[in-house]
Amino acid sequence: MPISGLREKHKQELENLTLIAQPFKTLKLFIVAVLQYIRRSLVYLLTHVVWLMLFVTLTVAGGLLFLSVDGPHGKHVEELLEYARFGLWWVALGVASSIGLGSGLHTFVLYLGPHIAFFTIKAMQCGRVDLKSAVYDTIQLNRSPSWLKKDCSEFGPPLFSSSQGVQVPLSSILPQVQVEAILWGLGTALGELPPYFISRAASISGDKMDVTEELDASSSENNGVASNLNHMKRWFLSHAQYLNFFTILVLASVPNPLFDLAGIMCGQFGIPFWKFFLATLIGKAIVKTHIQTVFIISVCNNQLLDWIENELIWMLSFIPGVASALPTIVAKLHAMKEKYMAAPLPVTSNIKVKSWDLSFASVWNSIVWLMLLNFFVKIVNSTAQRYLKKQQEIEMAALKKLEQSED
């Protein structure tokens, strides 16, 4: 078979190698690739890092022994593990947000945003912010915060009140959700490192990443928003030589679809690691997270809504016929808001509450699991295709060598 025909055959095989088109072959190649990677990793560890493995083994054994022995330190160890779990959870969510879980959905929308909103609404209902039992009393894996379902009477009387009702200032709510927001931002910054390192390695080896060609190919297939986004990315690539600490900081400080190229371009143009990472860390963990957090708190504690309401009332007061009806409309809106923000009445034992079989939490968890399933499918497909491509390269090299020997 000529080389051109073999190359076309290989291309067709790669395109067809998916879990949908060829599930058994894809799974087989995926398992072979994983086993091969595990074998290589074990060989490397056994031959190069014996002392490191010994140190890790002794450390783990000592830690397990320390945890298994009862004593006064048990409470402190348990507290330390709670903090570690809390930190790892929010950092992992930040990393998952950067990689998009294979679907482009944002964990800020899935977890951090609702957590901030729930805490703000609860603080408004109870008139106080000391709701958490500890810093780690937040939404976590298979765990809801203890304050979410508690009645406000369990926390005590309101500490914040005014003539207009309960008004909890933003400056009091922000510190209560600031730690998890910063940890999430740290995770998003860490999630931007793989593209940087991959591009940096390609640049050092003399290769160039064909980002422009991929954008051209995708532009011919996509229309509408996707095509416009690709045009924006192409413009960004043409101006990537102006990347510095300030521009990286600005790009990281605002939500934008172009930052996925920033790491690639910084690695390609040799931007120092610490310059890229510090700018990304400050932008994402400090600036961006605080902008998002302050916005959600402002919406949920009615400060922003009150300002918008006052501005709308002022504008509508100049419209003939509407000014006379404004007091009635505003009174009804305030009554609805007070009813919504009022703390729920405690349910007594003789009252039966009808629960839905299909709750919001179950639907939400189903969406998250579908995202994870999609992420897993893409990992399996890409791993199997990468393994097949290596085998094809070996076959192509053997064919070229055979043709050269015949000549």
Polypeptide structure, described:
With 407 residues, this protein is mainly α. The protein has helices spanning 3-16, 23-48, 50-68, 73-99, 107-126, 170-191, 193-204, 211-221, 225-238, 245-253, 259-268, 273-300, 303-316, 326-341, 360-406. Helix content is 71%, strand content 0%. The chain contains 15 helices and no strands.
Summarize the structure.
This protein is 71% helix and 0% strand.
Per-chain topology:
Elements: H1 3-16, H2 23-48, H3 50-68, H4 73-99, H5 107-126, H6 170-191, H7 193-204, H8 211-221, H9 225-238, H10 245-253, H11 259-268, H12 273-300, H13 303-316, H14 326-341, H15 360-406
Helix pairs in contact: 1-15, 2-15, 4-5, 4-6, 5-6, 5-12, 6-12, 7-11, 8-9, 10-12
Largest sheet: none
Distance between termini? 16 Å
DSSP strand tally: 0
Helical proportion, percent range: over 70%
Q: SS-based structural class?
A: mainly alpha
Rg, Cα atoms, Å: 28 Å
Overall spatial form: extended
- β content, as a range? under 5%
What is the count of helical runs? 15
Mean of pLDDT: 75
Element-level helix/strand string: HHHHHHHHHHHHHHH
Poorly predicted residue ranges: 209-222, 343-358
Transmembrane segments: 45-67, 87-112, 242-264, 276-300, 312-331, 358-380
Organism: Lactuca virosa
Protein name: Vacuole membrane protein KMS1
Keywords: Membrane, Transmembrane, Transmembrane helix
